[in-house]
Specification:
about 210 residues, mainly alpha, Arc Repressor Mutant, subunit A
């Protein structure tokens, strides 16, 4: 039988899923740094030789887990493009909903990766991805609306990315209450209109505090 046969590919996918599920479960229990390859293999109920046929070490396994998560996430996102010369104002909300649906479907993974026992590299990669995708979006906005930023754009993008990560941490910690659409709407209000509006208050004018 060819090594590239469907049955072989299925076994490979199953083995890798077992290893990745084992990694997530063990990080939740012990933290990533305390883990050994033998721990992961034992939890996945495979031998170490099988582990090394798929991954170099636990860091390689973690990197592949993160790569897969980001590839799945990116595949759901709508590109930051205009439609027939008109800016697509629905894209940010739709993308937030798609991202949050992905988070909800992989809540255990995100809960672990964003925890104190998770991998700091995941938080950094997620923040970079969110910041870069927001930058692409605002570059499109700038072509249709003259804007003079009131502060460094990179500060704005970093703030929005960090706010989203904080909201995702809260959401998965509370077992993803409500729907992805509801959470996307909440985030839209928070990031586009601010905390005062979210609390049902009128935002204060800066001159009142000058």
């Amino acid at each position: 039988m060819s090594q590239n046969s469907p049955s072989t590919d299925l076994r490979v996918r199953r083995t890798r899923k077992l290893l990745r599920d084992a990694l997530v479960a063990l990080i939740a229990e012990r933290g990533f740094e305390a883990l050994k390859v033998a721990d992961i293999a034992d939890r996945a109920m495979i031998n170490r030789a099988t582990f090394y046929r798929h991954y170099r070490d636990k860091h390689d396994l973690l990197a592949h887990c993160m790569d897969d998560a980001f590839e799945e996430l990116k595949a759901r996102m709508r590109p930051p493009e205009s439609d027939g010369g008109a800016l697509d104002h629905g894209a940010p909300l739709a993308n937030s909903e798609a991202m949050l649906a992905h988070v909800a479907e992989n809540a255990d993974f995100y809960r672990v990766m964003l925890s104190e026992d998770g991998a700091g590299t995941f938080v950094s990669r997620l923040r970079t991805y969110l910041r870069e995708s927001s930058a692409e979006r605002w570059q499109v906005v700038a072509t249709y609306a003259a804007a003079d930023p009131l502060m460094p754009p990179d500060l704005i993008l970093h703030f929005v990315a960090s706010a989203y990560i904080g909201a995702i941490v809260w959401w998965v910690a509370h077992d993803c209450p409500g729907s992805a659409a509801q959470m996307a709407s909440h985030l839209f209000t928070l990031t586009m209109q601010g905390p005062y509006r979210a609390f049902g208050l009128q935002p204060p004018h800066e001159s009142n505090y000058s």
